[in-house]
Each structure stands twice: as C-alpha cells, then as structure tokens.
Design goal:
By secondary structure, this protein is an alpha+beta fold. Helix content is about 25%, strand content about 45%. It has three helices and eight strands, in the order αββββαββαββ. Strands 1, 2, 3, 4, 5, 6, 7 and 8 form an eight-stranded antiparallel beta sheet that branches. The relative contact order is 0.22.
Length: about 130
C-alpha cells in the first residue's frame, strides 16, 4: 500500500469531519462527511443512494474533499466510483459501527464509493505543499 495513500486515510480519520464537494449542473454542492475506509489499496467513503449527493455523483463523478486538522489542510480531488461489493459495505459498517443504525449492506441504499484519478495536496502556512496521487 502506498505511503501517500495511507497518509491521506490517516489524516481524514484523525480530522473526523471533512467536507465533500460535488457538482450539480454549474452549482457546487458541499456538505460534511465523516466516513472513510481503506481497503485493497482503495480509499472509500460511504453515503446513501437516495441522497442528492449520490445522484450528483452519478451524473458527474468529479468530487473534492477538504479537511483541516492541527494547522494543516488536505484537498483531495478526483472521481468517485460506485462499488457494490457486499464485503466492502460490511467492512465499512465494522469500521464505523455507528452506521449500523442507519444502513445495512442489503438495504439497496448503502453506497460505497472509492477515489480514482485522485490528487491529494497537504498544505499549511508553515511548510511547502505535498502532493500525493493515487
Ligand atoms: C459530522 C457529519 C458527518 C457526516 N458524514 C456523512 C457521511 O459520511 N456520509 C453521508 O452520506 N452523510 C454524512 N453526513 C450527513 C450529510 O452531511 C447530509 O446527509 C447531507 O445533507 C448530504 O448531502 P446532500 O443533501 O447534498 O445529499 C454527515 C453529517 C455530519 C454532520
């Protein structure tokens, strides 16, 4: 597993909350998210297929995440790809059991999405930016 990908995962996990931007027509949409899973070299997030965010990504998979922690911020841009593998959904629910009250792997709603063609940039006011691609 790439060290850079692992760094992105650990940063998002430690930040707790990140902000996910999607596109709807010519309008950016942004909302808080917190789900994150690293599995088989892929960085996943989770949502519900009934949500507008899911519909936006189906129409246009381009997305960007921003997270901030301890004076540093991460911008992660790429495309989000749907993955209906049941094992991935189960792994997400085990990683973040609070989701079990809202989602089930077989509910037809739970959606796992992973980043492809991703570029992550770590920035701060005190150090040069660091870029990771995966
Ligand atoms: C701290 C926090 C974390 C959240 N994490 C997620 C998440 O990981 N996945 C998700 O689908 N919704 C999450 N939500 C709820 C979404 O922000 C909310 O459903 C939002 O309305 C979805 O965007 P949409 O209305 O454009 O579909 C979270 C909300 C908060 C306050």
């Amino acid at each position: 597993m790439s060290e850079g990908l692992n760094k992105v995962y650990e940063f998002l996990l430690a930040a707790g909350t990140y902000y996910l931007a999607t596109v709807e027509g010519d309008q950016p949409r942004v909302r808080p998210f917190g789900t994150v899973l690293l599995r088989d070299g892929k960085l996943y997030i989770q949502t519900g297929k009934v949500k507008p965010v899911s519909h936006q990504l189906a129409a246009n998979p381009k997305a960007e995440i921003c997270a901030f922690k301890d004076g540093a911020w991460l911008r992660l841009a790429g495309e989000l790809v749907n993955d209906d593998d049941r094992d991935v959904k189960v792994a997400m629910l085990e990683k973040m059991p609070v989701l079990k009250g809202m989602y089930d792997p077989d509910d037809g709603n739970m959606q796992m999405l992973y980043f492809k063609n991703a570029e992550a940039v770590f920035s701060s006011f005190t150090a040069a930016p660091e870029t990771v691609c995966f």
